[in-house]
Inverse folding.
C-alpha cells in the first residue's frame, strides 16, 4: 500500500470519526431542546431547570461549532500531497506513536493502528515542527525518532 493510499485512509477515518461526533452533538442538542420545550409547557415551577437545559443546549452548540471547524481542517488535507517535513497535513510516524497534523480530535483507529490527530497549535507539534524523517526530538523528557513523514 502506498503513502497516498495510506494517507487517504487515515483522512477518511478521521472524517468518519468527526462525523460521528457531530451527529452525537446534534442529537444531544435536539434532545435538550425538546426537553426545554416540554418544560415550557409546564408550570413556572420548572423555570430554573428549563434555564439549565437552555444552557446545556448552548454548550452543545459551541461544541458542535468547534467540531464543524475541526471537520473543515481535516478536509483541507490533500491526500495526494506527500509531505517531507512535519507541517499541517503531514502524517508523522515516530518510534512511539503515529500522528496526523490537522486539528485536535484525538485518537483514530485505522486497520489496527492508532493515529493521534493533533493541532499545529499544541506544544507536542511545536517540538517536532519542520523536522524530517530520521530526525529526533524531545518532549516532556521523552525522546522521539521520526521514522516516516508523508
Amino acid at each position: 500500500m502506498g503513502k497516498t493510499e495510506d494517507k487517504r485512509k487515515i483522512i477518511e477515518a478521521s472524517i468518519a470519526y468527526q462525523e460521528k461526533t457531530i451527529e452525537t452533538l446534534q442529537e444531544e442538542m435536539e434532545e435538550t431542546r425538546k426537553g426545554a420545550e416540554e418544560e415550557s409547557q409546564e408550570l413556572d415551577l420548572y423555570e430554573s431547570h428549563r434555564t439549565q437545559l437552555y444552557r446545556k443546549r448552548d454548550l452543545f452548540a459551541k461544541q458542535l461549532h468547534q467540531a464543524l471547524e475541526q471537520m473543515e481542517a481535516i478536509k483541507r488535507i490533500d491526500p495526494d500531497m506527500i509531505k517531507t517535513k512535519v507541517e499541517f497535513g503531514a502524517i508523522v510516524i515516530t518510534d512511539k506513536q503515529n500522528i496526523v497534523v490537522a486539528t485536535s480530535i484525538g485518537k483514530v483507529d485505522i486497520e489496527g493502528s492508532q493515529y493521534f490527530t493533533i493541532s499545529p497549535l499544541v506544544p507536542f507539534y511545536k517540538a517536532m515542527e519542520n523536522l524530517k524523517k530520521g530526525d529526533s526530538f524531545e518532549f516532556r523528557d521523552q525522546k522521539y525518532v521520526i521514522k516516516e513523514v508523508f
The chain has two domains: 3-75, 91-149. The beta strands are 91-94, 98-101, 106-110, 113-118, 136-139, 142-149. The first strand starts at residue 91 and ends at 94. The chain has three helices and six strands.
